[in-house]
Amino acid sequence: MVIELMKSHASVRDYKDQPLTRAQVHELVEAAQYAATSHFVQAYSIVWVTDEDKRKRLGELSKNPKQMEGAGAVFLMCADYNRLGHAAKLQGEDIVFDQAENLLVAVTDVGLLAQNLALAAESKGYGICYIGGVRNNMEEISKLVDLPDGVFPVYGLTVGVPNEANEVKPRLPVEAVLHENEYDEAKYAEILPAYDETIMAYYAARSNNQKTAKWSEQMATFLNKPHRPDLKDVLAKRGYLFK
């Protein structure tokens, strides 16, 4: 059942040495393309990185060498207005994509595409992991795979036969994310401490990498400082000016 598959997701970071075939990759990507897309723009592209040297360098730049070198397939999930520019030229037109709205559309399209790909992969028994670390060195990674203006990597996605079985991490309760008619922040005073206890019990009981940490503690530590402050300038070089 699809819902049970979705609720069984756990990131996989250790894969068996079994590369995906071209046919397997094409099947997954084709399924992913049937995700919803704003105004049918399909503002995304996927770079399938098969070259060993490029994968090694990608691992270094993203600070995820084990996954990038060991996965059955490595994808860069990219926002893409370059192809749309080519489409417009067929009609003798130029496109405008330097607005914040266009950025949101492209990132949303990539997210929907990627999640479809991930779900398709997991339905076939593969494990997957998103690699946000590609934004650590977005400019260098863009050069590594020759991304033109209008294209940038949003995240990586590794796919492969799992060499590990991770426990599913408990998500926030539905009540924490579902609001009816009005946003209710008062409920967090009760829900979040209870969720902290749930997460602490999970970390203490899981089979590897046991630790003691509250969810709220981790979030406070993660979000009390800026991350990747160069991204606005890097995106501007790609044509995204936040107008």
UniProtKB/TrEMBL annotation:
<keyword id="KW-0288">FMN</keyword>
<dbReference type="InterPro" id="IPR016446">
    <property type="entry name" value="Flavin_OxRdtase_Frp"/>
</dbReference>
<keyword id="KW-0285">Flavoprotein</keyword>
<keyword id="KW-0560">Oxidoreductase</keyword>
<dbReference type="GO" id="GO:0052873">
    <property type="term" value="F:FMN reductase (NADPH) activity"/>
</dbReference>
<protein>
    <submittedName>
        <fullName>Oxygen-insensitive NADPH nitroreductase</fullName>
        <ecNumber>1.5.1.38</ecNumber>
    </submittedName>
</protein>
<dbReference type="Pfam" id="PF00881">
    <property type="entry name" value="Nitroreductase"/>
</dbReference>
<feature type="domain" description="Nitroreductase">
    <location>
        <begin position="7"/>
        <end position="160"/>
    </location>
</feature>
<comment type="similarity">
    <text>Belongs to the flavin oxidoreductase frp family.</text>
</comment>
<keyword id="KW-0521">NADP</keyword>
<dbReference type="InterPro" id="IPR029479">
    <property type="entry name" value="Nitroreductase"/>
</dbReference>
<dbReference type="InterPro" id="IPR000415">
    <property type="entry name" value="Nitroreductase-like"/>
</dbReference>
